[in-house]
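Report of the visiting student (M.T.), summer placement. My assignment was to run the structure pipeline on a short list of targets and document each run. The first record concerns TetR/AcrR family transcriptional regulator.
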Amino acid sequence: MADGRVPGERRRRRPTKTGVLLSQEAIVDCALRLVGQHGPDALSVRRLGTALGCDPSALYRYFHNTDDLLLAVADRIIGEAMAGFEPDTMDWLDGLRDMARRIHRGYREHPRVAALAAYRVTRRPHEFRAVDAGIGLLRRAGFPDAEAVRHYAAFVDTVLGHAALDAAHLALPPDRRAADDAAWAAAYADASPEEHPQLAAVRAHLPLMAGSSFDRALDLLLSALAGAACPEGRKTG
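After the run finished, the structure tokens were exported:
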């Protein structure tokens, strides 16, 4: 198969020693849980086998390797995020906004996985449907095919980049996260006017640097797309 998954005839649904019915879905569930609890190092066949109560080699009946599993985990996140998304019921701009927020929220809900998977291409069903929907929205806006693809690439890279950045921030220990956020109102706001005149001039506003800039970046990107759309697309956006 094009997505590199293990052929169906090599997969078997077998109960493990703990009574778990082994399947791709059960393994992905376990991988999400382990990485969420213990970080990227938990994504190993040894740890998965222990958690599932099976011989680690049994996992190779379902996935070629841990990278193959990681792609399945990423596709699961996309699928959960996009569940219920109906782009045909909204105009193209609202559809892109809803899609962006869904993907961003999906990876923020799994911050430790996001650092591993947000930049990967899953080549699996949920991602196929998401890409198809996103390009469809941009074609509906009136963009020529090549432009729709280019704009979608810029759109989804912006969304995933912010998702990975925000997820990495959430994955920090709480004290480090708080220290980073507080630095804008403390260390940077106290910068010397002689050495850093621009920081000094805007010191009252520097706390705005804390937290996510995703919503602002999304607004700017969608405004640019709306401005570049054909007149008919602008009316529907």
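Residues 1-11 have pLDDT under 50 and may be disordered. The chain has two domains: 1-64, 65-236. I thank the supervising group for their guidance throughout the placement.
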